[in-house]
Amino acid sequence: MLLGAVGAFFVLSPARAADFRVIQWNASRACRIYDFSWGFRPIPPDYTVLTKSLPSYSAALSAKNALARRARCSV
Predict the structure, then answer these.
(1) How far apart are CA 63 and CA 52, in angstroms?
(2) Closest Cα to residue 55, out of 72, 33, 40?
(3) pLDDT of residue 12
(4) Coil vs helix vs strand at 73
């Protein structure tokens, strides 16, 4: 019964817009794609956001690859 209630919650919840961004960890300069639409922030909080909001993971991956080609990201 609980599983059904949880499933109904996700089905009936309004769709959330994706908010993918490329972030860079300050200590290592490594870049990562993070979805900010979940409402949580990355841990640890020592990061810099490098891109504006991107609508899809593939768009964020393209942006991350472009940053890596320009030697902005270490990984």
Answers:
(1) 10
(2) 33
(3) 43
(4) coil
Written in H, E and C, the secondary structure of 19-48 is: CEEEEEECCCCCEEEEEHHHCCCCCCCCEE
Residue with tokens 């200590």: 27
d(CA 23, CA 33): 6
Return the pLDDT at 16: 61
pLDDT in tens, 10-64: 444 455 678 999 999 999 999 999 999 988 899 889 999 999 999 999 999 999 9
First to last CA, the chain: 45
Which amino acid would we find at residue 71? Answer: A
Nearest to 69 by CA among 27, 22, 25, 35: 22
Which amino acid is it at 72?
R
